[in-house]
């Protein structure tokens, strides 16, 4: 891990869980021993947010998985950043590849939403990533740079942003990026930000990896210099696995006695 940022682990629960399953997962998570040095955010569906906010141990911050690009009003089916903040939500995941591909969210739209959410007091986990086809055809860095560019066109202050590098080919596939692949891209992202916001802020920026992270591969990934945390999907629905992943950084870098 680089910079001054705290190791960060997000659990993206996606569109999963009944009331009962969410209650059970929370009960187990609340009993889990997550190292106090790690910042942990859990992101349930919108409808489960109130319950999670009321029930989760203060050890866990709570995030939403999306929000609208402007304020309240005639936007049927949307949720605004103001409403999330009013509820007590601290974080929002934006630009997830599932939304980019299934709901056709453009780079610009993700940039707009990010700027709006930040200006209304939310912190943002901004996701970027390439498909396998883009990677194999040598387009990877062009794609990632365009996604970053659209963010940086709308925001100059990245203090409240975590960048999640989530290669699309690794999401939900069990095909995790190797630690070297993750490090290579994270370093590229850090260098991109160094040019854009200066070395000090780029060093402090947290760049986390997402895509088939589990309790077995997390420590090896966490040991890489530019991997500052994770955004976890499937494994975040299993309390034991998620707690192990949260603690992977401390497991990877034991504090000398
Ligand atoms: O999309 C992800 C997190 O946002 C990753 O999902 P998986 O961990 O299930 O691959």
UniProtKB/TrEMBL annotation:
Keywords: Isomerase. Pathway: Carbohydrate biosynthesis. InterPro entries: Aldolase_TIM, TIM_sf, TrioseP_Isoase_bac/euk, Triosephosphate_isomerase, Triosephosphate_isomerase_AS. Coiled coil: none annotated. One of its GO terms (molecular function) is triose-phosphate isomerase activity. GO terms for cellular component: cytosol. The keyword 4Fe-4S does not apply. One of its GO terms (biological process) is glycolytic process. It comes from the Eukaryota. Pfam families: TIM (PF00121). Belongs to the triosephosphate isomerase family. Homodimer. This is Triosephosphate isomerase.
């Amino acid at each position: 891990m680089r910079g001054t940022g705290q190791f960060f682990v997000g659990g993206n629960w996606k569109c999963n869980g009944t009331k009962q399953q969410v209650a059970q997962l929370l009960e187990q998570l609340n009993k889990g021993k997550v190292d106090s040095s790690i910042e942990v955010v859990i992101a349930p569906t919108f409808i489960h947010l109130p319950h999670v906010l009321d029930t989760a141990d203060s050890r866990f911050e709570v995030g939403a998985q999306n929000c609208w690009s402007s304020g309240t009003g005639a936007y049927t089916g949307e949720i605004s950043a103001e409403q999330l903040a009013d509820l007590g939500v601290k974080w929002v995941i934006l630009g997830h590849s599932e939304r980019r591909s299934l709901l056709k969210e453009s780079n610009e739209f993700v940039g707009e939403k990010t700027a709006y959410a930040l200006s209304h007091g939310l912190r943002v986990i901004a996701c970027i990533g390439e498909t396998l086809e883009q990677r194999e055809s040598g387009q990877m860095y062009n794609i990632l740079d365009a996604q970053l560019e659209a963010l940086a066109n709308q925001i100059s202050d990245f203090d409240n942003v975590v960048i999640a590098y989530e290669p699309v080919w690794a999401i939900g596939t069990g095909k995790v990026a190797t630690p070297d692949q993750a490090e290579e891209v994270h370093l590229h992202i850090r260098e991109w930000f160094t040019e854009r916001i200066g070395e000090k802020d780029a060093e402090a920026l947290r760049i986390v990896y997402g895509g088939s992270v589990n309790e077995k591969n997390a420590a090896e990934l966490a040991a890489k210099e530019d991997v500052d945390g994770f955004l976890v999907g499937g494994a975040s629905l299993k309390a034991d696995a998620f707690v192990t992943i949260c603690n992977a950084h401390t497991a990877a870098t034991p504090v000398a006695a």
